[in-house]
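Please produce the structure of this protein holding FE2/S2 (inorganic) cluster.
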Amino acid sequence: MSLTAGQGGSGAGSSGTPRGFAEHGSAHGGHGTETAPYERLFRGERLAQLEQLFTLYPTKQACLLPALWMIQEARGWISEPAIGEVAEVLGLTPAYVKGVVTFYTMYHTHPVGRHFIQVCTTTPCNICGAEDVVRALLEQTGCRELGATSPDGRFTVIEVECLGACGFATPILVDDDFIENVTPEKIAGILQRYE
Ligand code: FES
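Below is the modeled complex.
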């Protein structure tokens, strides 16, 4: 499908790299850029929390996903310096950490809206109208492009591969809410629930 000018590449499975990110970044300040000096997250109490996690897993490397969650929960997204910090505290290379961050759609590599919407557009959902759902979401959120953030900062919409609900097209994820059988007519009611 071709809904955006900035769309490029393809997805890589239900947990793969998000497809169709706009190339010019978001309303929150640009694609993968920071203007302030990076402030380490893993200090004091946060570092203690991470070290507590180390005791629950056989290796520090096994703490990579939760460590990334801690970064994202605190900062909203995972920047290049954050990748470097995680690599340092876990004894990994930044390239390894970046490979994991960019594999999963749940991790954000640039600032996103307050609500992150993932839409399945894999073939079974596509032939059931997923493109129309994406188009309606882009119009009604104001995002206009996949991967971009709406001017009011509320939403970011991306396409993803199969969400595992092929019999309930079209499924979408809004943050942690899994919503099935979405049609363009239902979009307005769904968006109302998210401020
Ligand atoms: S193809 Fe859309 S949920 Fe499986």
